[in-house]
From TrEMBL, chain A:
The keyword Cytoplasm does not apply. Keywords: Cell membrane, Membrane, Transmembrane, Transmembrane helix. Belongs to the CPA3 antiporters (TC 2.A.63) subunit C family. The keyword Transferase does not apply. InterPro entries: CPA3_antiporter_subunitC (IPR050601), NUOK/Mnh_C1-like (IPR039428). This is Na(+)/H(+) antiporter subunit C. Its main location: membrane. Pfam families: Oxidored_q2. NCBIfam families: PRK08600.1, PRK12660.1. It is found in: Cell membrane.
TrEMBL record, chain B:
It is found in: Cell membrane. Its main location: membrane. Keywords: Cell membrane, Membrane, Transmembrane, Transmembrane helix. The keyword Cell membrane applies. This is Na(+)/H(+) antiporter subunit B. The chain crosses the membrane at residues 12-30, 36-55, 71-94, 114-136. It holds the Pfam family MnhB. Residues 7-131 form the Na+/H+ antiporter MnhB subunit-related protein domain. Signal peptide: none annotated. It is a multi-pass membrane protein. PANTHER family: NA(+)/H(+) ANTIPORTER SUBUNIT B, NA(+)_H(+) ANTIPORTER SUBUNIT B. It comes from Solibacillus merdavium.
TrEMBL record, chain C:
Keywords: Antiport, Cell membrane, Membrane, Transmembrane, Transmembrane helix, Transport. InterPro entries: CPA3_Na-H_Antiporter_D (IPR050586), NADH_UbQ_OxRdtase (IPR003918), ND/Mrp_TM (IPR001750). It is found in: Cell membrane; Membrane. Its main location: membrane. It is a multi-pass membrane protein. NCBIfam families: PRK07691.1, PRK12663.1. This is Na+/H+ antiporter subunit D. It comes from Solibacillus merdavium.
Amino acid sequence: MESLMIVLVGILVTVATYLILSRSVIRVIVGTAILSHAVHLLLLTVGGLKKGSVPLLGQAAAPFTDALPQALILTAIVISFAVTAFLLVLAYRMYLMNGTDDLEELGGSSDE
Amino acid sequence: MKVNDVILKSVVRGVVFIVFTLGMYLFFAGHNAPGGGFIGGLVLGSGIVLLYLTYDIETVHKGMPFDFKKVAAFGVLLATGSAIASLFFNVPFLTQADGYYNLPLLGEKHLSTVTIFEAGVALTVVGTLVTIILNISEDE
Amino acid sequence: MNNIIVLPLIVPIITATLLVFLNNNIKLQRIVSLITMIFVACISVVLLQLIQTEGILRLDFSGWMPPFGILFVADSFSVLLVLTASIVTAVCLIYAFSTIGERHEKMYFYPFVLFLIAGVNGSFLTGDIFNLFVCFEVMLLASYVLIALGGGKMQLRESIKYVLINVVASWMFLVALAYLYGTLKTLNMAHIAQRVAEAGQDPLLTVVSLTFLVVFGLKAGLLLFFWLPGSYSVPPTAVQALFAALLTKVGMYALFRTFMLMFPLQPEITHTIIGVMAGATIIAGCMGAFAGRDVRTIATYNVIISVGFILVALAVGTEDAMAGAVYYLVHDMLGKALLFLLIGTMILVTGEVVVKNMNGLIRIYPLFGWIFFIMMCALVGIPPLSGFIGKVLIGQGAIETESYVLLALAFGSSIIVMYSLLRIFLASFFGETSINEEDKMPIPRGAMASFIILAIFIIGLGVGAEGLAVYVNDAAYTLSNPSVYIDAILNTNK
């Protein structure tokens, strides 16, 4: 199961890399979102998949799954939610200001 | 521009309450089951966004005259406030208190200060979510 | 239990949220934010004293004992940096009062500065590597907003690049954390160090540590600094100064913690790579500073040179070099803040950015000119100013370990720093003045005050180095003997 997950993570990273390298800002942002999903899956996988029962009150079963990776993922999700939301607003503002969402056209430094 | 959105409006009028109820349920379920402030806040926030989508901003603003930036700030304040309250009781930062209380009508319930912290989280999420959506939509 | 440790993180956050409610009362916003920073500075002085008497302090959040809970750790190294960061922020705020403009102030400028400093302080104080990630993100989110605030055309263009590069870097941070958790099953920094020390640092762990090197290298501007010149030249001057003084330093702090505390056992691999990167950073920074025509470019490449210079100390890794690095970090935060504030003011009063087009400033603004001169001497490392002792100690460490190439590069860079700044000084401050006495633009009094305060600190840091030596030596001792740190955290029976 773990190997399968790692392959999935790899596929997600591939897709995200492809999107991030494209020219449209929106595709880049979608790429960063997929990238963060990939790493969340990776975090889940390194914590070990499905080894015990749910670490919740009232579940008396003896071996519990390590809950820490899930706490880490939740934190990472919250952060990536905030960053993605901010990026979307920023990209929209930039589009209004610069009149293009093409990163190639935006490129270059200011003093040439 | 006049759009015929009678279906949307009448569906949302009912659905929004279901969404809010689900949000509140998730918020309180987080006490010791899956759920919690973040996910509850997200659901509540998306309910509000749904309202903004269906009715226009002015109409919704009449019903909910909040500055959502301030809602978010209040949420952070509530969360950090419940965290630093522990400083005044001379216990380590972020320590939470809980206990079983006999409430009228509800019977014996488990109450904890974590709920205050979670409420802060939920308000922050709602505030941020709605602020971002409004920020993008207001220019049109 | 020392709840005081959390105050540098939590007080700015609480005041920042309070300021959101006071958005229309700019005067009150200014006063509250300044008082907050001064308060945090006082707290850190108290902490610094406390550490000297009681050793390394730690605070276990909600009483969860290490290694299970999240904790804050205060040792001399982190608290010295917290203290300096608070001072620099207070000074930048004073500068901002008179220059930033009402438009920015109404767009939540002060709350975000306070969030930024909360993230910075949290990163310095945390003892848990995932918490370090979270504090990094708090700092970065605030910096994203600050860099885009105002929304000029170029500003938005550069800020989207800045955000994207940092998103990718944060992603790599998470990947490194996942690998680390997969191999060691712990996130407490002291516990990681202990496990690495017990089990030995096998190639897998070294690879993990190198992933961290890439992440923190991106944040600190170690070799991977391509994003830095663009994004540091677009925001308002006060924000530039804050960024230059604080953001790269947080990355460097993380590098020191990673390679002195957590993964110190394979220096022939990790520290060699750091050495090569530091050397390359210095060379590239020098080229940029040489070639730059406008003052901002020269200033940003000076930041890069100093990153390389401080990380030479990490590559060398002796106790002397650590002491030098701590001195130099403190000095560099003050010096770079002053450099950016002065450069920004030069652009403000002349309306020019190219060195050649400004001249004769010292005739009109004599005090301003001489403060620039003092700052230049300090950055170059002329005794008795603040840069000198750091440079000597790092050099001493390099000689002890016979890394002469790094030594030559590090000290050669001082000459380039001098050349680049002296060029500004000679071209822009001397010669015929192009501005008339009548239509000269006065430098705001608040701005002048902030320069004077920083200049006093720089002189004081140089002259009063002896007084600071106790703290710096303690910091260096803890850095070069990880067991002290580990003992303080994991011996829970006290």
